[in-house]
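As promised in the previous annual report, we have extended the structural survey to additional targets. Below is the entry for RpiR family transcriptional regulator.
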Amino acid sequence: MNKLEFEIPFNQMSKSQQRIADFIVKSPERIPFYTEEDIATKAGVSIATVSRFWRSVGYDNLKSFKKYLQETQHSTPARKMQHVLDKTENEVVVQMITSAAVNLEETAKRISLQAFDQAVEALIVADKIYVHGPGSTSCLSDLLRFRLNRIGMEVRIMAQSGHELLESLVHAGPNDVVLFFGFVRKSPEATVILDQASESGYTTILITDLLLSDMIDDSDIVLQVDRGDRDAFHSLVAPMTIVESLSVSLAGQRGESAMEKLQQLHAMRKHYASLLPK
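The corresponding structure token record, generated without further manual editing, is:
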């Protein structure tokens, strides 16, 4: 399976071309069903810009690009997994560890230390922290709640989708933070979270692997990570490292308060060891 190929590098494209390219790279499975008008709407550019885009990157038109996608059979979870298996053969663990190291190295380049410090500052003063982690990122939500609850910080996990999301969001106010994960594309839930922020006044923290997205522009604080190429197995190692880093930083910020909670937990474990063994 090949990567999506454009004749000009991403960093040499215009801002509008980058928006189109980023949308295509993150959502190739949708392109066969989209018109140029659809793509223009999703990428936030004009239809004329989309029409000119194809020739600038080496294709006659949208139809020829769709044909290229069909021939190269991009995307779908099954193909991504097969790609990993084909590449790794009998050394899966070695290849996965190597890929994770690359993800972390790239994340170290992408992450803004200033944005990270802002996230820690926002979380430490928040009355309540709401976390939205759809799909596979639900484990990251659970990890963050586990770590922060331990040091006395209240974290509430939001419903992954549907109207139940609003049951949590309705309580979020100006002194709260909503942290959410936004990978691949902007979901309806992310749209609601960001839209309601202007009404309710809570601070939004986005953890994403996208380079260009309306979510980035609309979020208060953005932490960018790398999860691998579009057609690769998307690892959660880098975003998990960010979650762990936030947890450690927050424990440090809370100082004695955090240590007291951890010591209290240790004492309770000893006291109830016979009833609640490890």
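The chain has a mean pLDDT of 87. The two ends are 46 Å apart (CA to CA). These points will be discussed at the next consortium meeting with the crystallography subgroup.
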